[in-house]
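Reviewers of the previous submission asked for a worked example of the structure-prediction workflow described in the proposal, so we include one complete record here. The input consisted solely of the amino acid sequence. No template or homolog information was supplied to the procedure at any stage.
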Amino acid sequence: MSPKGCSKCFNTGYSGREAIFEIMVMDDTLKSLVLETSDSNRIKDAALRSEMITLRQDGMSKVLKGITSIRERSFVLPRNKIILIFTIFFIFFFCETLFAQDQNFLFRFYQEHISVVDGNRCSMYPSCSRYASRVFKKHGPVIGWIMRLNSNFCCGRDESNISMKVIVNHQELIYDPVGGLMISGGLKKKKKRMNFRYSYILILIIILNQNSFAQEKQLIITSGMQYEYAQKLFNEKDYETAMVEFKRLIHFFPDYEHKDQVEFNIGICLFNLKKYHDAARVFNEIIINGKENDFTKEACFFQSRAFMNLGNNGYAQIVLQNYLKLVEDRETKDRIYFNLAKIHLTEARNGKPDSLILAREYLSKISRSGANQYNSDQYLDLIIKVEDAPKKNPGAAGLFAIIPGGGFLYCERYHDALVTFLLNAGLIFAAYEAYDHDNKALAGVIGFVETGFYTGNIYGSISSAHKYNRAQTIKILNQDFSISSKFDLERKGYELSFNYKF
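From that input alone, the workflow returned the following C-alpha coordinates.
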Protein backbone atom coordinates (compact mmCIF):
# COMPACT_ATOMS: atom_id res chain seq x y z
CA MET A 1 0.00 0.00 0.00
CA SER A 2 1.93 2.99 -1.32
CA PRO A 3 0.63 6.57 -1.72
CA LYS A 4 0.48 7.98 -5.25
CA GLY A 5 0.96 11.73 -4.67
CA CYS A 6 0.14 14.80 -6.73
CA SER A 7 1.37 18.36 -7.27
CA LYS A 8 -0.56 19.67 -4.27
CA CYS A 9 1.41 17.45 -1.86
CA PHE A 10 4.71 17.71 -3.78
CA ASN A 11 4.23 14.10 -4.94
CA THR A 12 4.61 12.74 -1.41
CA GLY A 13 1.15 11.21 -1.20
CA TYR A 14 0.59 12.76 2.21
CA SER A 15 -1.31 15.82 3.40
CA GLY A 16 -1.35 17.07 6.98
CA ARG A 17 -0.78 14.84 9.98
CA GLU A 18 -2.66 12.03 11.66
CA ALA A 19 -1.99 11.03 15.26
CA ILE A 20 -2.09 7.48 16.58
CA PHE A 21 -3.21 6.89 20.14
CA GLU A 22 -2.97 4.33 22.91
CA ILE A 23 -5.57 5.15 25.53
CA MET A 24 -5.99 3.09 28.69
CA VAL A 25 -9.44 3.64 30.18
CA MET A 26 -9.40 3.03 33.93
CA ASP A 27 -11.99 0.50 35.06
CA ASP A 28 -12.43 -1.21 38.43
CA THR A 29 -9.96 -3.99 37.58
CA LEU A 30 -7.22 -1.59 36.53
CA LYS A 31 -7.81 0.64 39.54
CA SER A 32 -7.39 -2.28 41.91
CA LEU A 33 -4.21 -3.40 40.10
CA VAL A 34 -2.71 0.08 40.29
CA LEU A 35 -3.40 0.17 44.03
CA GLU A 36 -2.11 -3.37 44.61
CA THR A 37 1.05 -3.47 42.50
CA SER A 38 3.46 -1.41 40.49
CA ASP A 39 4.10 -4.22 37.97
CA SER A 40 3.49 -2.51 34.64
CA ASN A 41 3.28 -5.83 32.79
CA ARG A 42 0.31 -6.98 34.87
CA ILE A 43 -1.43 -3.65 34.36
CA LYS A 44 -0.79 -3.76 30.60
CA ASP A 45 -2.07 -7.34 30.33
CA ALA A 46 -5.27 -6.39 32.17
CA ALA A 47 -5.72 -3.36 29.90
CA LEU A 48 -5.32 -5.52 26.80
CA ARG A 49 -7.92 -7.92 28.13
CA SER A 50 -10.19 -4.90 28.46
CA GLU A 51 -9.80 -4.39 24.69
CA MET A 52 -7.36 -1.50 24.89
CA ILE A 53 -6.06 -0.56 21.43
CA THR A 54 -2.27 -0.27 21.34
CA LEU A 55 -0.26 2.21 19.29
CA ARG A 56 0.69 -0.54 16.82
CA GLN A 57 -2.94 -1.62 16.41
CA ASP A 58 -4.18 1.94 15.98
CA GLY A 59 -1.47 2.61 13.39
CA MET A 60 -2.33 -0.55 11.45
CA SER A 61 -6.03 0.37 11.61
CA LYS A 62 -5.26 3.70 9.93
CA VAL A 63 -3.19 1.88 7.31
CA LEU A 64 -6.10 -0.43 6.49
CA LYS A 65 -8.44 2.56 6.23
CA GLY A 66 -6.10 4.19 3.71
CA ILE A 67 -5.29 7.16 5.96
CA THR A 68 -1.55 6.47 5.95
CA SER A 69 0.91 3.83 4.70
CA ILE A 70 2.86 1.02 6.33
CA ARG A 71 6.07 2.82 5.56
CA GLU A 72 4.95 5.96 7.40
CA ARG A 73 3.72 3.90 10.37
CA SER A 74 7.05 2.18 10.86
CA PHE A 75 9.38 4.78 9.33
CA VAL A 76 11.08 5.67 12.62
CA LEU A 77 13.14 2.83 14.01
CA PRO A 78 12.21 2.15 17.67
CA ARG A 79 14.81 3.19 20.19
CA ASN A 80 15.14 -0.25 21.75
CA LYS A 81 15.90 -1.77 18.33
CA ILE A 82 18.66 0.76 17.77
CA ILE A 83 20.16 -0.08 21.17
CA LEU A 84 19.98 -3.81 20.33
CA ILE A 85 21.75 -3.30 17.01
CA PHE A 86 24.60 -1.34 18.52
CA THR A 87 24.90 -3.83 21.37
CA ILE A 88 25.22 -6.76 18.96
CA PHE A 89 27.65 -4.77 16.84
CA PHE A 90 29.79 -4.01 19.89
CA ILE A 91 29.79 -7.62 21.13
CA PHE A 92 30.70 -9.02 17.73
CA PHE A 93 33.38 -6.41 17.20
CA PHE A 94 34.79 -7.14 20.65
CA CYS A 95 34.76 -10.87 19.97
CA GLU A 96 36.47 -10.44 16.61
CA THR A 97 39.21 -8.31 18.14
CA LEU A 98 39.63 -10.66 21.08
CA PHE A 99 39.78 -13.86 19.02
CA ALA A 100 42.11 -12.27 16.53
CA GLN A 101 44.61 -11.77 19.36
CA ASP A 102 44.03 -14.80 21.56
CA GLN A 103 41.20 -17.19 20.82
CA ASN A 104 41.52 -19.10 24.09
CA PHE A 105 41.77 -16.13 26.45
CA LEU A 106 38.24 -16.30 27.92
CA PHE A 107 38.22 -20.07 28.22
CA ARG A 108 41.63 -20.21 29.90
CA PHE A 109 40.48 -17.50 32.30
CA TYR A 110 37.43 -19.62 33.19
CA GLN A 111 39.42 -22.84 33.59
CA GLU A 112 42.24 -21.30 35.63
CA HIS A 113 40.27 -18.97 37.91
CA ILE A 114 36.52 -19.66 37.97
CA SER A 115 36.30 -23.48 37.57
CA VAL A 116 38.86 -24.01 40.32
CA VAL A 117 36.58 -22.32 42.82
CA ASP A 118 33.23 -23.43 41.39
CA GLY A 119 34.23 -27.06 40.93
CA ASN A 120 34.36 -29.23 37.82
CA ARG A 121 30.92 -30.86 37.66
CA CYS A 122 30.49 -31.01 33.87
CA SER A 123 29.14 -34.41 32.70
CA MET A 124 30.04 -33.81 29.06
CA TYR A 125 33.18 -34.51 27.09
CA PRO A 126 34.73 -32.26 26.09
CA SER A 127 33.78 -30.00 29.00
CA CYS A 128 31.79 -26.83 28.36
CA SER A 129 34.79 -24.53 28.30
CA ARG A 130 36.89 -26.85 26.14
CA TYR A 131 33.97 -27.46 23.79
CA ALA A 132 33.48 -23.73 23.40
CA SER A 133 37.16 -23.14 22.73
CA ARG A 134 37.26 -25.84 20.08
CA VAL A 135 34.06 -24.90 18.22
CA PHE A 136 35.05 -21.22 18.11
CA LYS A 137 38.43 -22.19 16.75
CA LYS A 138 37.03 -24.70 14.28
CA HIS A 139 33.87 -22.94 13.03
CA GLY A 140 34.36 -19.24 13.79
CA PRO A 141 32.54 -16.84 16.21
CA VAL A 142 29.04 -16.99 14.70
CA ILE A 143 28.62 -20.74 14.10
CA GLY A 144 30.68 -21.45 17.21
CA TRP A 145 28.39 -19.26 19.29
CA ILE A 146 25.33 -21.12 17.97
CA MET A 147 26.85 -24.55 18.68
CA ARG A 148 27.96 -23.47 22.16
CA LEU A 149 24.46 -22.29 23.05
CA ASN A 150 23.03 -25.54 21.69
CA SER A 151 25.34 -27.54 23.97
CA ASN A 152 23.79 -25.74 26.96
CA PHE A 153 20.39 -27.17 26.02
CA CYS A 154 21.84 -30.66 25.52
CA CYS A 155 24.12 -30.71 28.56
CA GLY A 156 23.12 -33.88 30.51
CA ARG A 157 19.42 -34.65 30.54
CA ASP A 158 18.22 -36.40 27.31
CA GLU A 159 21.72 -36.33 25.84
CA SER A 160 22.76 -39.03 28.34
CA ASN A 161 20.23 -41.45 26.78
CA ILE A 162 21.23 -40.78 23.18
CA SER A 163 24.95 -40.05 22.93
CA MET A 164 27.73 -42.56 23.52
CA LYS A 165 29.71 -42.73 26.78
CA VAL A 166 33.46 -42.41 27.19
CA ILE A 167 35.77 -43.07 30.18
CA VAL A 168 38.03 -40.13 31.03
CA ASN A 169 40.19 -40.25 34.20
CA HIS A 170 38.12 -43.13 35.55
CA GLN A 171 34.93 -41.08 35.08
CA GLU A 172 32.09 -41.91 32.70
CA LEU A 173 31.21 -38.84 30.58
CA ILE A 174 28.80 -38.13 27.72
CA TYR A 175 30.59 -37.66 24.39
CA ASP A 176 29.63 -34.62 22.30
CA PRO A 177 31.80 -34.32 19.17
CA VAL A 178 33.11 -30.90 18.34
CA GLY A 179 32.53 -31.38 14.64
CA GLY A 180 28.77 -31.37 15.01
CA LEU A 181 26.54 -33.45 12.75
CA MET A 182 25.15 -30.62 10.72
CA ILE A 183 28.33 -28.63 10.52
CA SER A 184 30.84 -31.36 9.83
CA GLY A 185 28.59 -33.27 7.43
CA GLY A 186 27.15 -30.40 5.48
CA LEU A 187 28.16 -26.80 5.76
CA LYS A 188 31.75 -27.45 6.69
CA LYS A 189 32.41 -29.62 3.67
CA LYS A 190 30.75 -27.36 1.18
CA LYS A 191 31.81 -23.88 2.27
CA LYS A 192 34.67 -22.19 3.93
CA ARG A 193 34.19 -20.68 7.33
CA MET A 194 31.95 -17.63 7.09
CA ASN A 195 33.76 -14.34 7.45
CA PHE A 196 32.85 -12.61 10.70
CA ARG A 197 32.03 -9.23 9.23
CA TYR A 198 29.58 -10.68 6.74
CA SER A 199 27.95 -12.59 9.59
CA TYR A 200 27.07 -9.63 11.76
CA ILE A 201 26.01 -7.60 8.72
CA LEU A 202 23.55 -10.38 7.93
CA ILE A 203 22.21 -10.30 11.50
CA LEU A 204 21.79 -6.53 11.37
CA ILE A 205 19.80 -6.84 8.16
CA ILE A 206 17.49 -9.40 9.78
CA ILE A 207 16.92 -7.18 12.85
CA LEU A 208 16.24 -4.03 10.87
CA ASN A 209 12.67 -3.41 9.83
CA GLN A 210 12.31 -4.37 6.24
CA ASN A 211 10.26 -1.20 5.59
CA SER A 212 13.39 0.83 6.30
CA PHE A 213 14.85 -0.58 3.11
CA ALA A 214 11.74 -0.10 0.99
CA GLN A 215 12.67 0.84 -2.52
CA GLU A 216 10.69 4.06 -2.47
CA LYS A 217 11.86 7.39 -3.69
CA GLN A 218 12.53 9.74 -0.81
CA LEU A 219 11.55 13.39 -1.23
CA ILE A 220 14.03 15.99 0.01
CA ILE A 221 12.19 19.10 1.19
CA THR A 222 13.99 22.35 0.42
CA SER A 223 13.44 25.64 2.22
CA GLY A 224 11.64 27.00 -0.83
CA MET A 225 9.24 24.07 -0.94
CA GLN A 226 8.53 24.37 2.77
CA TYR A 227 7.83 28.09 2.45
CA GLU A 228 5.62 27.55 -0.59
CA TYR A 229 3.53 25.00 1.31
CA ALA A 230 3.23 27.22 4.41
CA GLN A 231 2.31 30.24 2.28
CA LYS A 232 -0.32 28.18 0.47
CA LEU A 233 -1.95 27.33 3.81
CA PHE A 234 -1.72 30.98 4.82
CA ASN A 235 -3.46 32.13 1.66
CA GLU A 236 -6.18 29.54 2.30
CA LYS A 237 -6.62 31.11 5.76
CA ASP A 238 -5.63 27.89 7.53
CA TYR A 239 -3.64 29.98 9.97
CA GLU A 240 -3.18 27.28 12.62
CA THR A 241 -1.47 24.84 10.26
CA ALA A 242 0.35 27.61 8.40
CA MET A 243 1.87 28.84 11.66
CA VAL A 244 3.16 25.32 12.44
CA GLU A 245 4.72 25.01 8.98
CA PHE A 246 6.36 28.46 9.23
CA LYS A 247 7.84 27.47 12.60
CA ARG A 248 9.04 24.21 11.11
CA LEU A 249 10.74 26.18 8.33
CA ILE A 250 12.65 28.31 10.84
CA HIS A 251 13.61 25.24 12.90
CA PHE A 252 15.04 23.19 10.03
CA PHE A 253 16.35 26.14 7.98
CA PRO A 254 17.55 28.71 10.58
CA ASP A 255 19.58 30.56 7.94
CA TYR A 256 16.68 30.91 5.49
CA GLU A 257 17.16 34.10 3.50
CA HIS A 258 13.57 35.32 4.03
CA LYS A 259 13.47 34.54 7.75
CA ASP A 260 12.17 38.05 8.57
CA GLN A 261 9.10 37.52 6.43
CA VAL A 262 8.50 34.06 7.95
CA GLU A 263 8.62 35.45 11.50
CA PHE A 264 6.25 38.24 10.51
CA ASN A 265 3.86 35.70 8.95
CA ILE A 266 3.83 33.77 12.24
CA GLY A 267 2.75 36.94 14.02
CA ILE A 268 0.01 37.53 11.44
CA CYS A 269 -1.25 33.97 11.93
CA LEU A 270 -1.47 34.51 15.68
CA PHE A 271 -3.21 37.84 15.14
CA ASN A 272 -5.80 36.32 12.82
CA LEU A 273 -6.32 33.48 15.33
CA LYS A 274 -7.12 36.23 17.89
CA LYS A 275 -4.17 35.21 20.05
CA TYR A 276 -3.31 38.86 20.46
CA HIS A 277 -0.98 38.50 23.44
CA ASP A 278 1.23 35.94 21.63
CA ALA A 279 1.07 38.01 18.45
CA ALA A 280 2.22 41.14 20.29
CA ARG A 281 5.16 39.17 21.70
CA VAL A 282 6.22 37.93 18.24
CA PHE A 283 5.96 41.44 16.77
CA ASN A 284 7.96 42.80 19.70
CA GLU A 285 10.82 40.37 18.93
CA ILE A 286 10.84 41.59 15.33
CA ILE A 287 10.96 45.21 16.51
CA ILE A 288 13.77 44.51 18.99
CA ASN A 289 15.92 42.98 16.22
CA GLY A 290 15.86 46.48 14.72
CA LYS A 291 16.21 45.58 11.04
CA GLU A 292 15.21 48.37 8.71
CA ASN A 293 12.67 46.70 6.44
CA ASP A 294 8.95 46.73 5.76
CA PHE A 295 8.30 43.85 8.17
CA THR A 296 9.71 45.75 11.14
CA LYS A 297 7.52 48.72 10.25
CA GLU A 298 4.42 46.58 9.89
CA ALA A 299 5.26 44.78 13.15
CA CYS A 300 4.93 48.11 14.99
CA PHE A 301 1.47 48.77 13.59
CA PHE A 302 0.24 45.22 14.15
CA GLN A 303 1.57 45.19 17.70
CA SER A 304 -0.35 48.39 18.37
CA ARG A 305 -3.51 46.82 16.94
CA ALA A 306 -2.97 43.70 19.04
CA PHE A 307 -2.84 45.84 22.20
CA MET A 308 -6.00 47.66 21.09
CA ASN A 309 -7.81 44.34 20.68
CA LEU A 310 -6.64 43.40 24.16
CA GLY A 311 -8.27 46.61 25.43
CA ASN A 312 -4.91 48.17 26.33
CA ASN A 313 -5.03 51.43 24.39
CA GLY A 314 -2.25 52.88 26.54
CA TYR A 315 0.32 50.35 25.28
CA ALA A 316 -1.03 50.74 21.76
CA GLN A 317 -0.24 54.47 21.90
CA ILE A 318 3.22 53.91 23.43
CA VAL A 319 4.24 51.55 20.60
CA LEU A 320 3.28 54.11 17.94
CA GLN A 321 4.75 57.09 19.79
CA ASN A 322 8.08 55.29 20.23
CA TYR A 323 8.13 54.36 16.57
CA LEU A 324 7.30 57.97 15.65
CA LYS A 325 10.58 59.07 17.24
CA LEU A 326 12.56 56.74 14.97
CA VAL A 327 11.06 57.44 11.55
CA GLU A 328 11.68 60.39 9.31
CA ASP A 329 9.72 59.72 6.13
CA ARG A 330 6.49 61.69 5.82
CA GLU A 331 4.36 58.76 4.67
CA THR A 332 5.07 56.63 7.75
CA LYS A 333 4.53 59.60 10.07
CA ASP A 334 1.13 60.26 8.49
CA ARG A 335 0.17 56.65 9.05
CA ILE A 336 1.22 56.83 12.71
CA TYR A 337 -0.75 60.06 13.23
CA PHE A 338 -3.81 58.47 11.67
CA ASN A 339 -3.58 55.36 13.87
CA LEU A 340 -3.11 57.48 17.01
CA ALA A 341 -6.20 59.51 16.01
CA LYS A 342 -8.16 56.25 15.63
CA ILE A 343 -7.13 55.16 19.12
CA HIS A 344 -8.34 58.45 20.63
CA LEU A 345 -11.61 58.24 18.70
CA THR A 346 -12.08 54.78 20.19
CA GLU A 347 -11.47 56.21 23.65
CA ALA A 348 -13.96 59.02 22.88
CA ARG A 349 -16.59 56.35 22.31
CA ASN A 350 -15.81 55.10 25.81
CA GLY A 351 -16.30 58.57 27.24
CA LYS A 352 -12.69 59.38 28.06
CA PRO A 353 -12.22 63.14 28.51
CA ASP A 354 -10.17 65.13 25.99
CA SER A 355 -9.99 62.20 23.55
CA LEU A 356 -11.63 64.21 20.77
CA ILE A 357 -9.17 67.06 21.29
CA LEU A 358 -6.19 64.69 20.98
CA ALA A 359 -7.73 62.99 17.94
CA ARG A 360 -8.17 66.38 16.27
CA GLU A 361 -4.55 67.26 17.10
CA TYR A 362 -3.13 64.12 15.43
CA LEU A 363 -5.37 64.44 12.38
CA SER A 364 -4.24 68.03 11.87
CA LYS A 365 -0.58 66.85 11.76
CA ILE A 366 -1.20 64.66 8.72
CA SER A 367 0.28 66.11 5.51
CA ARG A 368 -1.85 67.19 2.58
CA SER A 369 -1.09 64.05 0.58
CA GLY A 370 -1.73 61.90 3.63
CA ALA A 371 -5.00 63.72 4.28
CA ASN A 372 -6.24 62.64 0.87
CA GLN A 373 -5.14 59.06 1.46
CA TYR A 374 -6.69 58.72 4.93
CA ASN A 375 -9.65 61.08 4.44
CA SER A 376 -8.60 62.99 7.53
CA ASP A 377 -10.81 65.96 6.57
CA GLN A 378 -13.90 63.78 6.91
CA TYR A 379 -12.69 62.70 10.34
CA LEU A 380 -12.22 66.34 11.35
CA ASP A 381 -15.75 67.09 10.16
CA LEU A 382 -16.93 64.14 12.21
CA ILE A 383 -15.25 65.54 15.33
CA ILE A 384 -16.85 68.92 14.70
CA LYS A 385 -20.22 67.24 14.35
CA VAL A 386 -19.70 65.52 17.73
CA GLU A 387 -18.69 68.78 19.37
CA ASP A 388 -21.69 70.62 17.90
CA ALA A 389 -24.16 67.91 18.89
CA PRO A 390 -26.75 68.90 21.53
CA LYS A 391 -25.50 68.20 25.03
CA LYS A 392 -26.86 68.35 28.56
CA ASN A 393 -25.14 70.29 31.31
CA PRO A 394 -24.57 67.99 34.33
CA GLY A 395 -24.71 70.99 36.71
CA ALA A 396 -28.04 72.11 35.34
CA ALA A 397 -29.38 68.56 35.63
CA GLY A 398 -28.42 68.47 39.31
CA LEU A 399 -30.05 71.87 39.90
CA PHE A 400 -33.29 70.79 38.28
CA ALA A 401 -33.24 67.65 40.43
CA ILE A 402 -34.08 69.77 43.49
CA ILE A 403 -37.61 69.07 42.34
CA PRO A 404 -37.74 65.25 42.28
CA GLY A 405 -37.67 64.06 38.66
CA GLY A 406 -36.74 67.49 37.29
CA GLY A 407 -33.20 66.42 36.35
CA PHE A 408 -34.45 63.33 34.49
CA LEU A 409 -36.98 65.48 32.69
CA TYR A 410 -34.17 67.82 31.60
CA CYS A 411 -32.21 64.83 30.22
CA GLU A 412 -35.28 63.69 28.26
CA ARG A 413 -35.84 60.60 30.41
CA TYR A 414 -39.54 61.16 30.86
CA HIS A 415 -40.50 57.79 32.30
CA ASP A 416 -37.78 57.96 34.94
CA ALA A 417 -38.82 61.52 35.74
CA LEU A 418 -42.45 60.47 36.41
CA VAL A 419 -41.50 57.48 38.57
CA THR A 420 -39.01 59.54 40.58
CA PHE A 421 -41.51 62.34 41.17
CA LEU A 422 -44.32 60.02 42.34
CA LEU A 423 -42.04 57.93 44.58
CA ASN A 424 -40.41 60.88 46.31
CA ALA A 425 -43.72 62.78 46.62
CA GLY A 426 -45.39 59.71 48.14
CA LEU A 427 -42.64 59.20 50.72
CA ILE A 428 -42.61 62.90 51.64
CA PHE A 429 -46.39 62.85 52.08
CA ALA A 430 -46.25 59.65 54.17
CA ALA A 431 -43.60 61.10 56.45
CA TYR A 432 -45.65 64.27 56.91
CA GLU A 433 -48.80 62.29 57.76
CA ALA A 434 -46.98 60.10 60.25
CA TYR A 435 -45.49 63.12 61.99
CA ASP A 436 -48.86 64.93 61.95
CA HIS A 437 -50.45 61.95 63.73
CA ASP A 438 -47.77 62.11 66.38
CA ASN A 439 -46.07 58.89 65.12
CA LYS A 440 -42.57 60.27 65.20
CA ALA A 441 -40.80 56.91 65.01
CA LEU A 442 -42.54 55.93 61.77
CA ALA A 443 -42.01 59.44 60.42
CA GLY A 444 -38.28 59.12 61.16
CA VAL A 445 -37.99 55.78 59.34
CA ILE A 446 -39.90 57.03 56.29
CA GLY A 447 -37.86 60.25 56.32
CA PHE A 448 -34.61 58.27 56.38
CA VAL A 449 -35.72 56.18 53.38
CA GLU A 450 -36.87 59.29 51.53
CA THR A 451 -33.48 60.94 52.07
CA GLY A 452 -31.83 58.09 50.18
CA PHE A 453 -34.28 58.29 47.30
CA TYR A 454 -34.01 62.06 47.10
CA THR A 455 -30.19 61.96 47.04
CA GLY A 456 -30.32 59.23 44.40
CA ASN A 457 -32.59 61.48 42.34
CA ILE A 458 -29.90 64.20 42.29
CA TYR A 459 -27.03 61.79 41.55
CA GLY A 460 -29.05 60.03 38.84
CA SER A 461 -29.85 63.34 37.14
CA ILE A 462 -26.16 64.36 36.94
CA SER A 463 -25.17 60.87 35.73
CA SER A 464 -27.94 60.95 33.12
CA ALA A 465 -26.52 64.15 31.67
CA HIS A 466 -23.11 62.51 31.19
CA LYS A 467 -24.74 59.42 29.69
CA TYR A 468 -26.75 61.56 27.32
CA ASN A 469 -23.62 63.33 26.06
CA ARG A 470 -21.73 60.04 25.66
CA ALA A 471 -24.64 58.48 23.76
CA GLN A 472 -24.62 61.38 21.33
CA THR A 473 -20.88 60.94 20.75
CA ILE A 474 -21.16 57.20 20.18
CA LYS A 475 -24.13 57.63 17.89
CA ILE A 476 -22.28 60.02 15.62
CA LEU A 477 -18.93 58.19 15.65
CA ASN A 478 -20.48 54.78 14.96
CA GLN A 479 -22.92 55.70 12.25
CA ASP A 480 -20.57 57.37 9.79
CA PHE A 481 -17.38 55.38 9.28
CA SER A 482 -16.34 51.75 9.16
CA ILE A 483 -12.59 51.23 8.78
CA SER A 484 -10.78 48.04 7.81
CA SER A 485 -7.10 47.47 7.09
CA LYS A 486 -5.11 44.85 5.23
CA PHE A 487 -1.41 44.16 4.71
CA ASP A 488 -0.53 42.70 1.31
CA LEU A 489 2.30 40.21 1.84
CA GLU A 490 3.11 39.95 -1.86
CA ARG A 491 3.29 43.65 -2.68
CA LYS A 492 4.38 44.57 0.88
CA GLY A 493 1.80 47.33 1.03
CA TYR A 494 -0.76 48.47 3.55
CA GLU A 495 -4.33 49.09 2.43
CA LEU A 496 -7.16 50.95 4.15
CA SER A 497 -10.79 50.72 3.06
CA PHE A 498 -13.48 53.18 4.14
CA ASN A 499 -17.24 52.77 4.15
CA TYR A 500 -19.06 56.05 4.50
CA LYS A 501 -22.81 56.12 5.10
CA PHE A 502 -24.80 58.94 3.50
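The chain has 24 helices and five strands. We consider this example representative of the routine output the project will generate in years two and three.
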